[in-house]
Design brief:
- With 320 residues, this protein is of the alpha+beta class.
- The chain is built from eight helices and 14 strands.
- The longest helix has 18 residues.
């Protein structure tokens, strides 16, 4: 790549489906015109009424690029009328920043905190909670913060106390911003409409369960007439978790010489398939929302090197 670029990426989660998403992408690409910023992927889900944009950029350009996209989203999305089965608290619900190349999670945390301060400054009514490396000095995880704030069940913003900004406005809601090692999103659909069974499977694979999968958080939702097991798959540092093949339990990658592991999508799907089979039902398929860590790193380096601002169009994008 010539000189070493310090690249990070983020996946802002917006609480609305496709139309507002397109406006944000247009503003990001054509408003900024920065050669070291690329939209790698777009995922929109009608049942969840939720969109995810994967943005890769040099660490110096990342904050301003995300800010431009978020400003458009806040203008377009009103949480007072937002509906969807997926939990959310904000018009821009979540902005996690992850390190990719030659940058550490601490530096991503500084970018996340700066972005949070700029959002509160530029968007009247915007309020923010911080997590991970942006949440100093506690560095509480996203799961910890969400539990504290009632993210999984709450839709009343009035009693929430943000880390930055005034009390959440009903239109904007509350936005989570932070930094951590890579978190992958992997969803598996079971051939059933039984939400209780789906919740049992999600609980069984959750990392907090004694027999669960390390670093995996899981929830079950009705989705397109079936039940989807939606998994956040965290990266973690563990020298005992070794990479062997695509079908192994763990995959591994490195950032700045630090080795990280995560449970492979194949293994997650196999575990859910076994648990579903034990109840006499099958699985329909698996969806990876975005990339594995190494895929993301490879796509980001290529897109930024070639100054491809809309890489998502090359790879076809994902709209569901």
């Amino acid at each position: 790549m010539g000189r070493h670029r310090k690249n990070g990426f983020t996946q802002p989660y917006r609480s609305h489906f496709q139309r507002e998403l397109q406006f944000s992408v247009h503003r990001l690409i054509y408003g900024q015109k920065h050669p070291e910023v690329s939209v790698l992927n777009i995922f929109s889900d009608q049942d969840y009424n939720r969109s995810v944009i994967t943005i890769a950029a040099s660490i110096d350009a990342l904050g301003n690029s995300v800010l431009a996209a978020c400003l458009e989203a806040f203008q377009s999305i009103d949480m007072q009328v937002q509906e969807g089965i997926h939990p959310c608290l904000g018009a821009v619900d979540l902005i996690p920043i992850y390190p990719l190349t030659d940058v550490g999670v601490e530096e991503c945390g500084a970018v996340a905190r700066s972005l949070a301060e700029n959002l509160v400054l530029h968007v009247p009514g915007c309020s923010v909670f911080l997590f991970g490396e942006a949440d100093l000095p506690e560095k509480r995880t996203l799961v910890q913060r969400r539990k504290q704030l009632g993210w999984f069940t709450r839709r009343d913003f009035s009693a929430l106390e943000p880390d930055l900004g005034a009390a959440p406005a009903r239109r904007c809601g509350l936005t989570g911003i932070g930094a951590s090692p890579y978190v992958m999103n992997c969803n598996v659909t079971i051939d059933s409409q039984d939400l209780t069974l789906g919740k049992e499977i999600a609980s069984a694979i959750r990392g907090s369960n004694v027999n669960g999968l390390k670093g995996v958080q899981a929830m079950a939702f009705p989705h397109e007439g079936k039940i989807e097991i939606a998994c956040n798959v965290e990266s973690f540092q563990d020298q005992e978790a070794t990479e062997t093949s695509d079908d192994s339990q763990y995959m591994a990658y490195s950032v700045l010489g630090d080795r990280f592991s995560y449970v492979s999508p194949h293994y997650i799907e196999a575990r859910i398939k076994k648990l579903a089979s034990d109840q006499g039902i099958g699985t329909i398929g698996r969806a990876l929302i975005g990339f594995t860590p190494q895929e993301c790193k490879n796509c980001a380096e290529y897109a930024i090197k070639k100054s491809i601002g809309e890489f998502w169009k090359i790879r076809g994008g994902i709209f569901m």
